[in-house]
Predict the structure.
Amino acid sequence: MTKKVLLGNEAIVKAALASGVSYVTGYPGCPAAEIGDEFGKIAERLSGYSGHTNIYAEYATNEKVALESAIGASLSGLRVLVNMKSFGINVCSDALLPLAYTGIKGGMIIVVADDPSCWSSAQSEQDSRGYAYLSHIPILEPADPQECYDFTKIGFEISEKFKTPVILRTVTRVAHQRAPVVFDDWKKTGVKGFFIKNPHQYSTMPPRTTEMHKEVLEKIKKIQAYAEKSSINKTLGEGKNKTGIITSGVSYLYVLEALENLKLNLPILKLGFFYPLPKNKITKFIKPLKSILVVEELNGYIEKEINALAKYINPKIKVFGKNLIPEVGELDTEKVSIAMAKIVGKKFTPFKVKNLNLAKRTPRLCDGCPYWYILPTIKRIAPEGTIFGGDIGCNMMGALPPHSMYDYMFCMGSSIGVAHGIKKASPQQKVILFIGDGTFFHSGIAGMINAVYNKSNPLMIVMDNRITAMTGHQPNPGMGRTLAGEATEELQIAEIAKACGVKNIKVLDPINIKELEETVKDFLEKDEVSVIVCKRMCALLARKIQKEKQQ
Amino acid sequence: MDKAFNLIINGIGGQGVITLLTLVDEAAFVDGYQVRSSELHGLSQRGGSVETHARFGKKVNSPLIENGKADLIISLEALEGLRGATKAGSQTTFLINDQVFAFQGSLTLEEIKERFFSIKNKSYFVPASTICEEKLQNDIGTGVFLFGYAVAKKLIPIKKKSVLQAIDNIVPEKYKDFNIKAFELGYAYN
């Protein structure tokens, strides 16, 4: 056993290794990216996959493909870990729901990292816990790096015991929290993957599907019974007080701090399982109480469950939650203290933030970024009224000053699909969309095919900076290199566009502004889809390579 | 130390804020403290303001410092130091690298210092980047320089030998020497 200061994400890696994981896949996204990156480094050190004693790690083209490949590896008997940010679970949900029905063979942990307050996310302030209800897959919520470690290990046990995938749901303040963690060494299992056929279990074909639905509901009942006894759902504090706290995840840490601030000693029920909830444990906890405060970030899922239970067990009890705790933005000690003070009738004065009228320093493109050649040029020469579509990644900065260009922005790859819809609805308006190379491979291709097939004519600018940059320089299919550092096929975006039926294609270096200008002007007049691939390496990566060469 | 020590480290994405935070965490851990910290990556790091929190002591509950409760704010950029003042309590001390990375609407160093004068908190302006650039030919040592200064002036309850041990524990071999030099420069600065 070792004790070290670790990031929540690093603790997850340690736990997976100690649990004998041998197949890791996912898609890089903040705040989850360090998990896949770390496994990539380990796999690179071991120079690839030797079949059983080593570890195999990859970044898939997107989260859906990642989960599907994890399913294949798990059904072949390997322990697997899938890593993604919040929105990743939306992308892979199509495979997630049938997976709950078929179950797994080798233990499977799916790490989903939410980002309350949208520190490094654009599209929504998603609370991914809702997928528990949709999929009937257990969700565990750690509060800190030690729990990241413990819950991942327990998660693998639950996964194999009940033959179900387990979701480990973190948030930014857990994934990017550092604290000392006690961990075990890497357990090299030597398990060799082998797929044993079992179509009865692995093929969701009606009429088996409805049978499987019944089976998964029965399974969840069994897991609930397990959760009742699990030490990760724990009661703390004095039982005498008639006000109690129910909380989960990082909110628990704010609860502890707020109690200390207000010099209160209230009983706490800390839930490690978000789903299924230990209903008997909750019943026992709330029975003697007069009031409860449910402290959870974002949606009031637990509060709803407590309200439903309280109706039968203790109808007079007052349940406080989202009426006192904000539903928008991450929580902190102050927000929790305000709510607690109100309930127990104590005085609490929140800190008054001083207003110094300082200008906001917003994120911007790095110095030397190739996008500096692209965005201002196109903004300058595009005809009045041109609609600009943005996508996810470094190109998001096009929405911020000094560019302030984007007229719409949704999710990975969406710039193309939305552009097609606008062109169909309003053919006279010009639409130019911007998408990075990583995002194009993730989910841009389907939109491109649709625009060609259904005959619209947006102008697509693929900003190919030769890497997935925003999340910390992860490799993608356009680079000729895998996560573990192996050489592989280098996919050409222009060739893909050609194969998809795009007629007007130009590959250029955006530093040649004149050429970019002329091509944009020319392509804007076309009746079919046009693609300009602006190929120039991310400035940070170029500097890094230069530095390595010098050393 | 019954109450946790609350340290905010801020600056601009890419300046090495997180590297410094990691080193403080490790040094506090070597010193025998419980420690928790919180940081941000990705979009929030791209040249924008970055604020990280580290807390250490006998017991630490939350990784986030409440507004008004920081004991020390180390700023790798002066305007970000002033930004930290919006959430400073009367006990908060400031240790600021006296460099301004100008942007639209930013203030000059003199204006920032004036504002600090009116805030009345204890504040130290130190030419960390300038000295690192001059003596080490690289201002990436700025954070570690400030750490050295804070330890020498007892602005932070961490022992010098714990910091040196921490550098040995977590800094890659080829950068160890550079970090020790930057730390010693800060430690000796008066």
Notes: The mean pLDDT of chain B is 95.
